[in-house]
Design goal:
The complex is a heterodimer of chains A (54) and B (454). The model of chain A has no long low-confidence stretch (mean pLDDT 93). Chain A contains two helices and no strands. Chain A has a domain of 37 residues. By secondary structure, chain A is an all-alpha fold. Chain B is 78% helix and 0% strand. Chain B has one domain: Sodium/glucose cotransporter, CATH 1.20.1730.10. In chain B, α4 packs across α14 and α7 packs parallel to α18. Chain B is globular and about 70 Å long. Chain B has 454 residues and is mainly α. Chain B has 19 helices and no strands. The chains are: A mainly alpha (54), B mainly alpha (454).
Chain lengths: 54, 454
């Protein structure tokens, strides 16, 4: 549960970063948000691998 | 007869044949959740098609056009929240539902809190989702009216019949199979639409978007972002039509595939839709696309300037998106009526309620009542009152029926009251206040009930 709370905090912080960090009038924020989401999906792919054996 | 009507006819025949092929369900478990025996790919496609409604190709394209990159952040935050909750609670919910033979989403709530809470949850879901679904029908009927000269009421009747017929005949299997084919169709057509727009788009002109390409800006303030994102962040747990999808995979491996494939579907579809909106706005700035003042008119305007074959396919994909969402909602609500309100053993009243709920949805859609639109926007906020109860199943031991009913009714009244009277407490968005209030009510009533019980 502690790990999941940590995971939740990390993804919320990562999604909020553009509100603080980026100020460019191009696709930077767009690419950043897509990369974070894709990265999280790939993380889920690996972290749920054991389900196949349960 | 024009081309789109021929295509709609073909589409209706194919969908009906699939629903007929899927019929034969006799038990509640079979009719409402496909005997818990759906493979990973079909589970993922029906989850995706149920989640992504006509809002994507109409509402989100318009939102991206009008407000820029913040729309992408909002939609991907929803997706990340859904992936998080599915990967954490998905296996737990799947296992409890299987072990206890739970069919309706409120069944899980009944198991933990009691019958009265389950009934209240079913009524609140009906109140929240019927207006929401009727707005889907209204949107599609308007697009059909514009693109095929099909009378608005006739459009509502055709879409309503398809929604009820496919769910009535095939139950979950019919809905899941038609969802799967339509889900693939939606994403393929959206790729064609993106290619068509991108061929006319000059990437170097993106700076004409100005501050709409970063956040915060004049529109996407942190408060606006939170207000929109919070109800959707918890969508996977609070919306019964997607919650029930966690019951259907045949095993944990299928559940895992459902989550992962849905994630890929979600990212691809969201990127396509928001990119179309942003590119169209840049084209407007360059004088290559008409200026659209009302954001929900962006997609209809795009349809009017596209080649006919593409605009017909895109209009049909919007119809498919609306139907896949609507028939899943109708089937889930009918399972709640059948299991939690009427408490029947078979599926007769479940089937009858598919027809009755669809008639209600159609009537609301035809009337175009203004408060229906407000209620539909409010639906995800109203459903937040279910969140403390769902989390309570796994994390909090206090409270039974009293706590459950008080939390649901209290949360419902607060969300509706705050919106209706336009009350803002210390500047916080309504969903945030609703969420906090629901948890406060849950914990206070839970402590009181636990003490009484002792």
């Amino acid at each position: 549960m502690l790990m999941k709370k940590f995971e939740l905090s990390i993804i919320v912080i990562l999604m909020a970063i553009p509100f603080i960090l980026f100020r460019t009038e191009d696709f930077t924020v767009f690419v950043y948000w897509v990369t974070v989401t894709l990265g999280y999906l790939i993380y889920i792919m690996f972290s749920t691998k054991r389900w196949a054996n349960e | 007869m024009n081309n789109i009507l021929i295509l709609i006819g073909l589409y209706s025949i194919i969908g009906t044949l699939i629903a007929l092929y899927s019929r034969g369900a006799k038990t509640q478990e079979s009719f409402f959740i496909g005997d818990r025996n759906i493979n990973g790919i079909v589970s993922a496609l029906t989850y995706s098609a149920t989640t992504y409604s006509a809002f994507m190709m109409v509402g989100l394209v318009g939102l991206s056009y009008a407000t820029g990159v913040g729309a992408l952040g909002f939609e991907l935050t929803y997706l990340i929240g859904t992936l998080f909750f599915l990967s954490y609670y998905g296996p737990k919910i799947w296992r409890i539902a299987k072990d206890k033979g739970i069919v309706s989403p409120s069944g899980l709530i009944e198991e933990r809190y009691g019958q009265k809470t389950a009934k209240t949850a079913a009524f609140i879901s009906l109140l929240a989702l019927i207006p929401y679904t009727s707005v889907q029908l209204t949107g599609v009927a308007l697009i059909l009216e514009k693109n095929s000269n099909l009378n608005f009421s006739t459009g509502i009747i055709i879409v309503g019949i398809l929604i009820a017929l496919w769910a009535f005949l095939g139950g979950l299997r019919g809905v899941a199979l038609t969802d799967s084919i339509q889900g693939i169709f939606m994403i393929v057509v959206s790729i064609f639409a993106l290619i068509w727009v991108s061929l006319r788009f000059d990437f170097s002109a993106i700076s004409s978007m100005g501050n709409l390409m970063y956040v915060p800006n004049s529109i996407w303030t942190p408060k606006f972002f939170l207000g929109l994102t919070i109800p959707w962040f918890f969508f996977a747990l609070t919306n019964p039509q997607v919650f029930q999808r966690m019951f259907i995979p045949k095993d944990l491996s299928a559940l895992r595939k459902m989550i992962i494939y849905f994630g890929f579907f979600g990212i691809i579809y969201t990127v396509i839709v928001t990119l179309i909106g942003i590119e169209l706005k840049v084209m407007t700035n360059q004088g290559l696309f008409p200026l659209v003042q009302y954001r929900d008119n962006v997609t209809p305007t795009m349809l009017s300037v596209m080649p006919e074959w593409l605009s017909i396919l895109l209009a049909l994909s919007i119809l498919a998106a609306a139907i896949t969402t609507a028939n899943s909602i109708v089937l889930t609500l009918s399972s709640m009526v059948s299991k939690d309100i009427i408490k029947e053993k078979g599926i007769l009243f479940g089937r009858i309620s598919i027809v009755v709920i669809t008639i209600f949805i159609g009537l609301f859609a035809v009337k175009k009542i203004s408060y229906i639109v407000e209620l539909s926007v409010l639906s995800s906020t109203i459903l937040l009152c279910l969140l403390p109860l769902i989390l309570g199943i796994f994390h909090f031991k206090m409270g039974k029926d009293f706590t459950g009913v008080i939390t649901l009714i209290g949360g419902f009244l607060i969300s509706v009251g705050l919106t209706y009277f336009k009350i803002s407490i210390i500047g916080l968005p309504t969903p945030v206040i609703t969420l906090i209030s629901c948890f406060v009510i849950f914990f206070v009533s839970g402590i009181i009930e636990s003490k009484q019980y002792k």
